[in-house]
Amino acid sequence: MRLALCFVAAALAATTADISANAADVTRVQGESPIASVVTVPAGVDTIYLSGTVPPVVDQNAPKGTVASFGDTETQTVNVLKRIEETLKGQKLTMSDIIAMRVYLVGDPAKDNKMDFAGMMKGYVQFFGTKEQPNKPVRTTVQVAALAASGMLVEIEVVAARGK
């Protein structure tokens, strides 16, 4: 009986060890595109959802509620991603742990009220798909009518994954 219990305990320990070892194995299908086409998260991995993050005011001298007070789309994207990076650090995560992203862009008045996708991408590629941080999330980017404050052009929401 003891031998049988020892065998069962050893088998359970081996199974648990295998599950733990695979928990951090997030699979990403990412080619030349700046975003992943597929991200697979195995069972046993925590998913962390961050609320939408908006940019800080960067020019206190600009009129309140203007694009000039927050910066152009590239500037806002970089500043939002820096804020996300800080929030992730508080959760003991990094930008490489981001698996999914939703980007909301307001039409830029300087661009005939069309979203500045190129400006957003200039900011985005500073954080994803780099030599230092090669991971890319799946991503959706849409134009919206407005955000929480006038002058804001960018809001980003992310999901990150952490092995247990």
UniProtKB/TrEMBL annotation:
A Pfam match: Ribonuc_L-PSP
List the InterPro entries.
RutC-like_sf (IPR035959), YjgF/YER057c/UK114 (IPR006175)
- Provide the alphabetized UniProt keywords: Signal
Top-rank taxon, per record: Bacteria
User: Is the keyword Signal assigned to this protein?
Assistant: yes
- Signal peptide residue numbers: 1-23
Q: What is this protein called?
A: Uncharacterized protein
